[in-house]
Amino acid sequence: MSGEIYQLVYRSIYRSGRIDNSLQALRDIVKSSRRNNASLFITGYLMFDGSIFLQILEGLRADVITTFAKIETDPRHRDAVIMQSVAVEKRDFSEWDMGGVLRTVAIPALLSGVEAVEFAKALASQRVNAA
Ligand SMILES: Cc1cc2nc3c(=O)[nH]c(=O)nc-3n(C[C@H](O)[C@H](O)[C@H](O)COP(=O)(O)O)c2cc1C
């Protein structure tokens, strides 16, 4: 297996449950993400503005793809669209086993994949972790 790091960026739309509690949903997501991602050495960042999720996953290609396949079918969101999926020289979020930022400023609708990573880096550098 190559040691190449793969970075996947996607966005999706929050889908509330019967009782709408996005705060609890995000807490649950971050909790299981931390556990699973740490065991696969997947790092990244999860942003949520109340309706849009924007997430970056980085790790070995096979692990990132398997993890995204699981995430994609999660009923807590819909219409996941991959914005960028590339090999990178190094991780951008090496310190985050999945930081969560709740209710960021609105996630811009027309971000490119590269812009999405910059947006996440700016938030992560503030060390905001509301989840
Ligand atoms: C927006 C969103 C992001 C998620 N991110 C991750 C993640 O980074 N890692 C992960 O393992 N699960 C993530 N999940 C949760 C998975 O869909 C799934 O519920 C979870 O991995 C199941 O873990 P478990 O089998 O340990 O209970 C995410 C879910 C949503 C809705």
Question: Your description of this structure?
Answer:
By secondary structure, the protein is α+β, with helices and mostly antiparallel strands. Helices cover 34% and strands 31% of the residues. The protein has 3 helices and 5 strands; from the N terminus they run E-H-E-E-H-E-E-H. It has helices spanning 22-40, 61-72, 113-125, and strands at 5-14, 43-48, 52-60, 77-88, 99-102. The chain has a 5-stranded mixed beta sheet with strand order 4-1-3-2-5, sandwiched between helices. Strand 2 (43-48) and strand 3 form a beta hairpin. The N and C termini lie far apart (34 Å). The relative contact order is 0.26. Flavin mononucleotide is lined by residues 12, 29, 32-33, 36-37, 46, 53, 55, 57, 67, 70-71, 74, 76-77, 98.
Largest sheet: 5 strands, mixed
* β-sheet strand percentage: 25-35%
User: What integer is the average pLDDT?
Assistant: 88
Query: Strand order across the biggest sheet?
Result: 4-1-3-2-5
Radius of gyration over C-alpha positions, nearest whole angstrom: 14 Å
The end-to-end distance, rounded to whole angstroms, is: 34 Å
Shape: globular
Parts with pLDDT < 50 across at least 5 consecutive residues: none
Give the bound compounds: flavin mononucleotide
